[in-house]
Amino acid sequence: MKPSYANTQSPLSLADLELLLALIRGRTLNGAAERLKVDTSTVFRSIKRLEKELGELLFERSRQGYLPTELGRELAAHAERIESHLQQARETASKSGSEAAGVLRITTTDTILNGLLLPALAGFASAYPKIDLELVVSNALANLSQRDADVAIRATRKPPEHLVGSRIGTLPSGVFAAHAYLQRFAQKPTLEEMEWIALDESLADHPSQKWRRQRLPRIHPRYRCNSVLSVAGAVVWGMGAGVVPLFLLKDNPAVSMVAGPLPELETDLWMLAHPDIRHLQRVRLLFDFLKSNLSLA
Fold first, then answer.
1. Residue 3 lies in a domain
2. For 91, 106, 189, 268, which has the most beta carbons within 10 A of its beta carbon?
3. What are residue 255's DSSP bridge partners?
4. The pTM is what?
5. Residues 145 and 280 in one domain
6. Full residue range of the structural domain in which residue 56 is found
7. Which residues form the HTH lysR-type domain (predicted)?
8. Which of 92, 109, 136 is the last residue of a domain?
9. 13-51 pLDDT, tens per residue?
């Protein structure tokens, strides 16, 4: 329902657009205030003033925080493009040969971060000391359109069409079990005879879930985890068998691959960004660095 404000046709300022983006990204008054480095009352008064000047609601208030209306989302899209162009202009205006600087926010899963990325990111941080890294661990793909993150690194067979990126390579997987677990059996067990560690229903569409349901329909996993890294940990500690990417366990002396690599479980590793920021220097540098330094073998 629209407020009964009079539309004064006041023009939007850059500060207004910055406020809008801060509240969308921060989701709450506190979150926006932290981003803008002001107090919450200033954010509240400013957004009320802006809505009054426009004669339209920009946010719906809910238990989940401040959710942008259709108009709020449309204005945010313009604001993000302006923000991106401004960042590129600043980089262009910088002296030739100056060091890359700024904050680079990267989102990925705990599995990829701990199993693949951290060694490479340590090298990137050393090479570019003025770039600050913020690492966001989540199994959900962050909303890069709202700049929840600048870059997403994901294992996927089909990256979202609205994002741009680079395919780094292929991630094979297999079924692993610990030597200590396998020694409980008088002879080598079949896959059906072993206790299984699997992902829970929050990851019901994961390729490992689909493969197990098709190939081993009578198996009912004894253990459930909400991340692949947790499945790998449970395997190492001898709790049973589980599907794990090779990069996590192939060099672990405590386990054996009892089936695989399995072609139907292969997935691709992608670096993704929103088209509006793909040309930023620090984003380009990360893409180039990871393509050259991230080892999937």
1. no
2. 106
3. 178
4. 0.66
5. yes
6. 14-92
7. 12-69
8. 92
9. 888 888 888 888 888 998 889 888 898 899 999 999 998
Q: Taking a C-beta distance cutoff of 8 angstroms, is the pair 33, 96 a contact?
A: no
pLDDT tens-digit map of 224-271 = 999 999 999 999 999 999 999 999 999 999 999 999 899 989 999 999
Which residue has tokens 């162009």?
A: 85
Among 151, 124, 123, which residue's Cα sits nearest to residue 135?
Answer: 151
Q: Please, what is the end-to-end C-alpha distance for the chain in angstroms?
A: 56
110-130 burial, b at 16+ Cβ within 10 Å, e below that, comes to: ebbbebbbeebbeebeeebee
Edge-to-edge strands, sheet with 267-273: 131-137, 102-108, 151-156, 267-273, 164-171
Spatial distance between the Cα atoms of 241 and 232, rounded to a whole number of angstroms: 9
Q: Which two tokens stand for residue 213?
A: 């349901």
Residues 197, 242 contacting (CB under 8 angstroms): yes
Sequence-ordered list of residues with C-beta below 8 angstroms from that of 279, at least 6 positions apart, any chain:
88
Classify 250 as helix, strand or coil: coil
Q: What are the distances in angstroms from CA 196 to CA 172, 180, 199, 202, 259?
A: 19, 15, 10, 17, 13
Are 243 and 231 in contact by the 8 Å Cβ rule? The answer is yes
CATH number of domain containing 66: 1.10.10.10
